[in-house]
TrEMBL record:
Residues 1-21 form the signal peptide. The lineage of its organism: Bacteria, Pseudomonadati, Pseudomonadota, Betaproteobacteria, Burkholderiales. Pfam families: Chalcone_3. This is Chalcone isomerase-like. InterPro entries: Chalcone_isomerase (IPR016087). It comes from Paraburkholderia fungorum. GO terms for molecular function: isomerase activity.
């Protein structure tokens, strides 16, 4: 009987752990704001969705970016592409040490993806970002500058995908 009680307590503890939480738990009252496909040279890479309580999406509130991949991509490629876009969009040069730290964050949080795999990121105002692969939390980084730079890849007016940005922000149907 003691063993059964200990097992039940252990399972309850594990299920309450943030590592077992789904990204939806971070934005419980959020609604789908917009979604769209990202393609390069006519090849669709992923479908992105923006979830938020507020429209327009505002950096003062939590929101989530949810991506369902159509193509296989290695996590190193995802991180390198992310860093390149962050550098391209930045108003001023970002120190190399900062970029290295942000790349390490991405490598920790990202996984290799195959068609149907899902990665999500939740913006935590004035705190940072939390990443998920499927339903598993893969990283949380208390770095507001990193969080804004990361989400800027999709939300900054200088994004490479302005049509997708409008779709995610709900300004185009």
């Amino acid at each position: 009987m003691r063993a059964l009680a200990a097992l039940a307590l252990m399972l309850a503890t594990l299920s309450a752990s943030p590592a077992w939480a789904d990204w939806h738990d971070d934005v419980q009252s959020a609604k789908l704001v917009g979604e769209g496909d990202f393609s390069v040279f006519g090849f669709r890479l992923y479908r992105a969705q923006m979830w938020s309580e507020r429209v327009p999406v505002d950096y003062g509130e939590r929101f989530a970016l949810h991506i369902v991949y159509v193509k296989s991509i290695r996590r190193e490629r995802l991180a390198d592409t992310g860093i390149n876009e962050i550098k391209r969009i930045a108003d001023a040069p970002i120190p190399a040490q900062t970029l290295e730290r942000w790349r390490a964050n991405m490598l920790q949080a990202f996984v290799d993806v195959a068609p149907g795999d899902q990665l999500s990121a939740v913006y935590l105002p004035d705190k940072g970002v939390r990443f998920y692969a499927g339903e598993r939390m893969t990283g949380e980084f208390d770095d507001p500058a990193f969080a804004r730079a990361f989400f800027g890849i999709w939300l900054d007016p200088a994004t490479r995908a302005p049509a997708l940005r409008k779709q995610l922000l709900g300004t185009v149907q």
